[in-house]
Amino acid sequence: MAQAPLPKQPIVEKCTGCENIEDGFCRIWAVPAAKWRTGVCPSATHVKVEAKVPEQKVRVGQQKQKKNR
Ligand code: SF4
Questions:
Q1: 42 CA to centre of ligand 1 in angstroms
Q2: Which of 18, 54, 65, 68 is the most core-located residue (most Cβ within 10 A)?
């Protein structure tokens, strides 16, 4: 028995400008909304994945310990 392919869902707003759009559907992903749910779609051609800049650690409340006599 052949499996039916996943019904394709239309692209979402964030897909606008992507080169993978074909007739209102993504030619890579069946559910584009799922690709954007967790962040930037990994196959988007119109969005550059920004390298995450690690936040600088700020040390707060560091005090010299007093020596007990
Ligand atoms: S590749 Fe990603 S951004 Fe491009 S149309 Fe498909 S789901 Fe949208």
A1: 8
A2: 18
Domain of 23, in residue numbers: 1-38
Q: Is the CB of 8 under 6 A from ligand 1?
A: no
Q: What is the pTM of this model?
A: 0.65
Q: What is the pLDDT of residues 6-65, one digit of tens each?
A: 789 999 999 999 999 999 999 999 999 999 998 999 999 998 756 666 777 777 776 666
Tell how far the Cα of 36 is from the centroid of ligand 1, in angstroms. 9
Residue 58 lies in a domain: no
DSSP 1: -
- Judge whether 53 lies within some domain: no
